[in-house]
Description:
Blueprint: H1 14-31, E1 32-33, E2 36-40, E3 51-56, H2 62-73, E4 77-81, H3 95-105, E5 108-113, H4 118-125, E6 130-135, H5 141-155, E7 162-167, H6 173-184, E8 188-193, H7 201-211, E9 214-216, E10 228-231, E11 243-246, E12 278-280, H8 301-306, H9 308-319, E13 338-343, E14 364-368, E15 375-377
Parallel strand pairs: 3-4, 3-5, 5-6, 7-8, 7-11, 11-12
Antiparallel strand pairs: 1-2, 8-10, 9-10, 13-14, 14-15
Helix pairs in contact: 1-9, 2-9, 3-4, 5-6, 6-7
Amino acid sequence: MALRHLTSINDLTNEEIVRIFALAEKFLEGLGDPDAPSRVSRSTEICAGSVMATLFYEPSTRTRLSFESAMCRLGGRVISSADPATTSAAKGETLADTARIVSAYADIIVLRHPVEGAARLAAQYSTVPVINGGDGAHEHPTQALCDLFTMRREKGVLENLNVALFGDLKNSRTIHSLAYSLARFGATILLMPTPGMELPAHVEQQLRDEFEYIPLSRSNDLPDGVIKVYGRLQAVVKDAIDVLYLTRFQKERWTDVTSNYPVVNQKFLAAPCFRRSLVMHPLPRAGELDPAFDDDPRAAYFRQASYGVPIRMALISLLLDRSSDQSLKQFAGGFRHADRIESGTGGTECPNVNCISHVESGAWLERLALKSDRPRCFFCHHEIPSQLA
Length: 389
Ligand code: NCD
């Protein structure tokens, strides 16, 4: 049976996402903190004997610690490398070799890396499941699972929400995974980028190609910051925003840009369209979300971070095939089915300069079984111009 990895949110089917949520709910019910409904406070032994490696080549608080906490709560053990300066990467080892080696030491690997497509490359060489804990500006699929889970718990539904994405939409990997998963569940997506930080063209193109999303005309009652609305043909753009999702300015991914980043505060959120909005943020915040708002019932970001533990417990136990009645191995796997994967020959190069294919391996193309047949980079999903492919 094929080894399952999670390198993009699109590696999971909608059915699998719903299964992960059902198991996370079970963990919250059975092991939750009676005084804090979003918190897991007790442990089980279902992953006893298993080892998880967390390999983090970029800073992290929530992702690494919630993964490690999740594995501890499942009764497993954790080995961790949180500082690239202390791994063999500092001696020039390739990620491919590191993935081969670490998969001999652990049963599951969580990788965070500054280069786009790194997790997909590691997955090609690992003999155990690889989970992407964030790869450059590309994707952060487990954050999207936490985000969707929060929306479902707090709004009661997942389908057809009206979700505004605010801030640095270009370089926020959480936004990219979230946009795909929202489209998968039929949300209307309102883009509110900081000027110059619009959603990357290849992400918009995927929304159009894979999810048949189209630009919709916006209602006049929406705030000025909404520059585009994407949805399904039949969607009616509502004035009320169900979820406002903010991100910080991703300063580590920009060179020579000083941003005039907006601040979201009580005054901003007093607009009628935000009256019932859930305000979400993957955190950390860096000045763009006023702490004076924290006690407002619409502020969901600390609960959102807390759900990281049950969601990751569910994902780990499913990938390790340790949950009694469910396994991700039951599925052939993947939402996206590549028609063909070709390793780069004939001078094919990924146009994304921060793609792992430029660091090791060379470009691979995947041609998806889609209407457009648009060739994309196998690692970072940027479109490869047809004259190159
Ligand atoms: C995010 C990340 O690392 O992409 N953090 C997280 O995992 N919760 C968001 C960010 O750093 O802005």
